[in-house]
Design brief:
The protein is mainly β. The chain has one helix at about 185-190; strands spanning about 5-10, 15-25, 35-45, 45-55, 65-70, 80, 90-105, 110-120, 120-130, 135-145, 150-160, 160-170, 175-180, 200, 205-215, 220-225. It starts with a strand and ends with a strand.
Length: about 230
């Protein structure tokens, strides 16, 4: 088992306080002996962390990846909700179904969940919608990767006059990159056929899987810094 979730806190984005392990790995017989990244949202006094349950020892009749959830009312004590499980719908890959990113669309008044996966063998960022964070409905993919690159760790947000999608290109550049557009609808219609000029790169090849957050003024990208020769 590997990749449990730990919780840290900061007031200045420079020094950090550790709160220890928040969401432990499951057993080898459960769906989450390994935990992959996800996202946390807050609703009606409850924090919801949607994460990837990765079962690398899955047999041919088992699911390798699914989206699971843990909840907390104080951001310190977390409980896995084993009644919740989101599997890949028909036509989508259950071997690649990870990195759930959930955000609230104020215009549509719905929650959107983006998941990295494949549909019909082609990489897409799948999209599910919900009004209560419990029941989710699959809709058309949020993003089509025309070049066939598999995009990991999507992160969608509005900053200033633009909507952004940050992602990590697993197959070619191994870099954290982003697309942007004036509206959320235009961002969804872009696809990576628009590269260039609507795609930018952040950092280099030793920086990966970044997700972002904001203090209302600045936006910070926090990612994996791997070891290189």
């Amino acid at each position: 088992t590997f990749h449990p979730v730990h919780c840290i806190g900061t007031t200045d984005a420079a020094s950090y306080i550790s709160f220890g392990e928040a969401i432990p790995c499951g057993t080898v017989s459960e769906q989450d002996p390994a935990i992959g990244t996800g996202s946390t949202v807050y609703k009606d006094g409850v924090y919801y962390t949607f994460y990837t349950g990765h079962k690398s020892n899955a047999t041919s009749d088992q699911t390798k990846e699914a989206v699971l959830v843990a909840t907390s009312t104080d951001f310190k004590t977390w409980k896995k909700d084993r009644s919740f499980r989101l599997d890949a719908p028909g036509g989508y890959s259950s071997d690649d179904f990870r990195d759930p990113h959930v955000f609230y669309d104020e215009d549509a008044r719905i929650y959107r969940m983006l998941i990295c996966t494949k549909r019909g063998g082609t990489a897409v960022i799948a999209q599910f919608t919900s009004t209560d964070l419990v029941s989710w409905t699959v809709t058309e993919p949020f993003f089509h990767t025309v070049w066939g690159r598999f995009y990991e760790c999507p992160d969608v947000f509005k900053m200033g006059n633009y909507w952004y999608m940050i992602y990590s290109d697993k197959d070619i550049t191994r870099q954290v990159q982003y697309f942007y557009a004036p509206t959320l609808e235009e961002l969804q219609r872009m696809g990576d056929a628009n590269f260039p000029p609507n795609e930018g790169k952040l950092e280099g090849t030793a920086y990966y899987a970044a997700k972002t957050d904001s203090d209302g003024t600045n936006r910070y990208a926090r990612g994996w810094r791997c070891t290189r020769n």
